[in-house]
Structure formats: C-alpha cells, structure tokens
Write a structure and sequence with these properties.
alpha+beta, Aminopeptidase, 8-stranded mixed beta sheet, 4 helices, 35% strand, binds coenzyme A, protein N-terminal-serine acetyltransferase activity, Acyl_CoA_acyltransferase, transferase, Protein N-acetyltransferase, RimJ/RimL family
C-alpha cells in the first residue's frame, strides 16, 4: 500500500518508487555510514540507488521505503518490512545535515500510526544496536517499549561474508497495539 502523509510544516512522508533515484543520490551525498536501504556505506551512485529502490519496490512484495520530503528534497527515509500477518519491522535514517530537527520523531510517529491504522498490523518492531544512543532515545520518545536483547544478532557489515563479519547484540523495541498510540 502506498503512503502519502502530510507531516505538517511543509513536510511530507510518501512511499519511494523506482522514479526516485535522483532523490536518493542527492540525499546520500554526504553520508559516510550506512543509509536506510542496506549495508551499502557512503553516497549512492545512480546505479546503487536504482538497485536499492528495486529491492524496496512497494509493488513487489513485503518491504517499502518512505521518504521524508520537503519541497521535493529527500531529508530522510523510513523502511517498513512486513514479516507476518500482524507484524512489521521499522527502520529509519535521516541525512546527516538534517539530524536533530525532529524529522525522525515526526516520521516514525506518523508511519507507526499509519501502519496500525491502514495496514492493520498490531506489532511494529525496531532492531537497535545497543551502542546507538540516538536510535534508542528516539524509540523511547516515540512510544516504543523495550522488549528484549538478542545476543550477537546483527551484523556490522564489515565484509560481505557473514562468517567473517563482526556480530553484535540487538535491542528489540516494540509498538504493540492501537491503544498505546505513538507520542504526538
Ligand atoms: C537515529 C536518527 C534517525 C535520528 O533522527 P533525527 O531526525 O536526528 O531525530 P530527531 O531529531 O527526530 O530526534 C528525536 C529524539 O531522538 C533522540 N535523539 C536523536 N538524535 C540524538 C542524538 N544524536 N543524541 C541523543 N539523542 C538523540 C532525542 O531523544 C530526540 O529528541 P530531542 O531532540 O527532543 O532530545 C538519526 O540519528 C540517524 O539517521 N542515524 C543514522 C541511522 C541510524 O542509526 N538509524 C537507526 C538504526 S537502528
């Protein structure tokens, strides 16, 4: 399902498609670490962006990426990965120069509500590196609740080979039902 949500203050959250290659290239231009769409670190070339958006094609299956846009400029993106009849994982990224402006808070809040209301999913969950303080604080601010710590669950993606990669613990945070709406 395609999302198109007015976030206020000229901001819009809308599902990204294969037509958004130029937006992704521009938005990742100053990123040195990983962005939303996979292990790829640093700026995306048009080819990288095309491959990423194909992997996240909302028409193809269970995962879609949703851009936070202002005046047709991509400021950040949220990923939604449906992993069961009642459940989806949410992931987020904001371009480096646009952080600490409340963009993730607005976007995650809106997409969480939309996922409960429009997709009818009861459980939305986050997977967070215990060292990622901004992400942990964001999860708490937006009304998710800590559920459990999974030992050596996530890859650092220092190498394509999983057997030679570094693995770290992951914290699972959950937004579980409609009665506990995300913070406004
Ligand atoms: C995590 C991330 C998405 C936050 O985006 P953002 O737009 O900067 O976040 P917001 O401005 O909406 O901040 C909302 C709340 O999150 C917390 N937060 C965000 N950045 C923080 C930081 N650098 N240090 C501490 N807390 C932080 C704060 O509680 C903040 O509320 P406050 O500003 O009222 O204190 C962003 O830092 C990012 O893209 N990081 C790289 C990708 C990543 O780590 N994704 C998560 C993978 S699990």
């Amino acid at each position: 399902m395609i999302a198109d949500i007015d976030l206020g203050q000229g901001l819009r959250l809308r599902t990204l498609t294969a037509h958004d290659v130029d937006l992704v290239v521009e938005a990742t231009g100053t990123e040195m670490a990983r962005a939303l769409w996979g292990p790829h670190p640093g700026p995306y070339t048009p080819r990288d962006a095309r491959a990423a958006l194909n992997d996240w094609d909302p028409a193809a299956g269970c995962q879609a990426s949703h851009g936070i846009l202002k005046h047709d400029r991509l400021l950040g993106a949220l990923g939604l990965m449906i992993d069961g009849p009642h459940s989806a994982e949410l992931a987020y990224w904001v371009r480096p120069e646009s952080r600490r402006q409340g963009l993730a808070l607005r976007g995650v809040n809106a997409l969480t509500r939309w996922t409960h209301d429009e997709l009818g999913l009861d459980r939305i969950w986050l997977e967070i590196n215990p060292a990622n303080t901004p992400s942990l604080r964001l999860a708490d601010r937006v009304g998710y609740r800590y559920e459990q710590r999974l030992p050596h669950h996530c890859r650092a993606w220092t190498t394509p080979d999983p057997d030679h990669d570094t693995w770290h613990d992951c914290m699972i945070w959950v937004h579980a039902n409609l009665t506990t709406s995300p913070a406004t």
